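CHAIN AND CONFORMATION:
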Amino acid sequence: MTFFRIVCLFALTVFLTTAPVGKAAAQNALGGRLDALAGTPENPLEVGVGIKIDQITGVDQKAENYGAVVVLRVEWIDPALAFDRDVAGRDIRVFNPPTLADHAAQIGAVLPAFVIHNQQSNKWIHESAASLRYDGRVVYVEKSSLTLQAPHFNFRKYPFDTQEFHFDVVSIFPSEYVSYYPLDEFSGLGNLLGEEEWILGNDRLEVSKVTGLSGRDSDQVALIFEGKRHLTYYTIRVFLPMLVLITVGWALFFLDEYRKRIEIAGANLLVFVAFNWAISEDLPKLGYLTFLDFILQCMFLMTGALIVFNVALRRLKVAGREEAARKLDNYAIKWIYPLGYAAIVGYAMFAYLLVP
């Protein structure tokens, strides 16, 4: 037990001494004055955690992170913090978090410090306060803004993908000393998130155990929610232009002059290249194809094949085999071109959207 206390205190000391100074030093208002372990294996400190996201300030798909304004609520009961309300003349005392940390240190109590596991930037605390009731019940509330990692992004079904967002709060202390339970009534997503690109919902709190700073299992409370894209934008800005380009390619078969067909198909190919680059700007450089990538690359290949096909028809006509060229042309109009695109779209839907 003594050895374990020394290891934990050493880890916490390193954590505190490497924290940034100035404004960034308020990253974890409950992280100061960690003089001893809270709770015991026989009677661990029960801590409730609530996470409420008021705003989504932005979603960066390339960096795979998002910004949020969050209200975090932490509450617990520690008899060591109890006071005589008759002497104090009140039932509840209100503290600034640093003052509460000093008060806890003076009487030998320890605050259940935590870290935000997927935090990527400084956490700027806008407002924070703590209340202490006469029986030792503490409620700590803070409102802050920060950037959070979103490693669960998977763009394979883009733009029909559903992405998962996390906000992970992890205890510094091992689970045998501090255990977490969710405060569902103080958690979830706000009504005015300010995010227009995504439809966010299906929020839930999950409690789990992860490897903490001590190297042992620590409790984690995570707010998990999902986001879907507004498909109206992609219908108008992506799929409708793609349909126009495909229709233009099909209309070429109704021109009698093969040379004109080749010129128009070449221009169409350049449009596909520019279109592909414009869409790829929104996503990171992925090691796999998305649904939209697959459709675009197939359209690119079909347009290239269309140029080759018309060159072959032109050669047949010049060689005096105009009747054979017309038969091949008619066959392509009726079957190859429309059925080819139908097969491409059907396979893409099955492989990317239906198969998990």
About this structure: The radius of gyration is 31 Å. The helical segments are 2-17, 85-88, 97-107, 231-251, 258-280, 291-318, 322-354.
